[in-house]
Amino acid sequence: MTTPNPTLSTALIEHCRSQFPALARRHDDQEAVYLDGPAGTQVPQSVIDAISHYYSTCNANHGGLFATSRESDTLVAEAHRALADFVGGDDPDEIIFGANMTTITFAFSRALSQQWHSGDNIVVTQLDHDANVSTWALAAQDRGVDVRYAQINPADCTLDVDDLKSKIDQRTQLVAVGLASNSSGSINPVAEICQYARQYDALSFIDAVHYAPHRLIDVQKIGCDMLACSTYKFFGPHIGVLWGKKSLLTKLRPYKVEPAANNTPDKWMTGTQNFACLCGARAAVDYIANIGHSVADDGSLSRRSALQIAYKAIEDYENTLCQRLLAGLENIADSNGITIHGISTNGDLRNRVPTVSISHPTWTSAQLAEALGDYEIYTWHGNYYALQLTRALQLEPEGMLRLGLVHYNTPQEVDRLLLTLSAILKDDPPA
Description:
- By secondary structure, the chain is an alpha/beta fold.
- The protein has two domains: about 10-45 and about 310-425, Alpha-Beta Complex (Aspartate Aminotransferase, domain 1), CATH 3.90.1150.10; about 50-285, Aspartate Aminotransferase, domain 2, CATH 3.40.640.10.
- Helix content is about 40%, strand content about 15%.
- The chain is built from 14 helices and 17 strands.
- It has a seven-stranded mixed beta sheet with strand order 4-12-11-10-9-5-6, sandwiched between helices. A four-stranded antiparallel beta sheet has the order 13-14-17-16, with helices on one face.
- Helix 7 links the parallel strand 9 (about 170-180) and strand 10.
- Helix 3 packs across helix 10 (about 275-295).
- The longest helix is centred in the last third of the chain and has 34 residues, at about 305-335.
- It is globular.
- Residues about 1-5 have low confidence and may be disordered.
């Protein structure tokens, strides 16, 4: 195997971009700039083709005694294997699919909370997407269990790990924490947190939704009990994914209809699954793996090995984009008064993914998003369900403007955003 290029070449970036039909979108002779990846990335043609191929060739329900059903079952099994490879698991039966991460987490919160009792507690954080907060808090409320909120460091929107640890004790049943913030981009030391939780026999649930398009997930190194993500955040269709330890998945009792299977993982996947999108989920994993094959110039690599190489290249490339974005925003801040929330160029960019949120004293996040949208630059505004964070920063109800980069973005797009934003801020906000 040749030594991989430490980052993505310009040619490879262009090759990646050519696989996304949406990136060719133009309006009023302006190319669209997709900086809304944290709300859902665009989808390569291979994923679209995988979904279409399913409907064209083997569209059938699960468990039938005929050819198309058997072919469908094979494709579903392949999806389980692909997502196990994606998260670093060694058993495809530890992969659960569902409508989305939030729905899956609600289901698991109901199953886990059956083990909770009055006087117990759970720990969640101010940094997380609400799918990893309210899901657990509501279950705790039903069981009379205390909910403890780990605080943030407001200066850089990182998790106060010492505060989180101080809230874990012998009655803690669950610690729920995100791998990376969908708002500030901050990466949390989840392996350290999971290890600490284990000392108190507390289960750990990791939300990896926002981390998944940017860095390699490894459930073995993290040492968590459960980890969830969503394929539409890493170039796939709208499907939620949960990895859980087999022993835990087997022991817990889910809410399900009586005729449904009692084995793991089937007992967790309530109702008829979206088989076509499961094929798309597998294709999304393979899209990322193929980047690794290209970087290494070796098509014989295992899927997991290719993913490792791909994500190292993606991380290096995205770090250069993020540094370019942050430096430009800091220049704008000097003259236009914007606030950058999260780790800046003065911090360690290895501890953040390329998602940057900003606020302005007179322009609301919605006004900025709309103004940029008029120039075909697509961003997001509000709290993006990171409600505890915007409350902690005293930014409700307007929230922040979120700028989300992924590997199909380019330095030229970053520069276009910065020039456009700078020009917008020279004017007063609309009345």
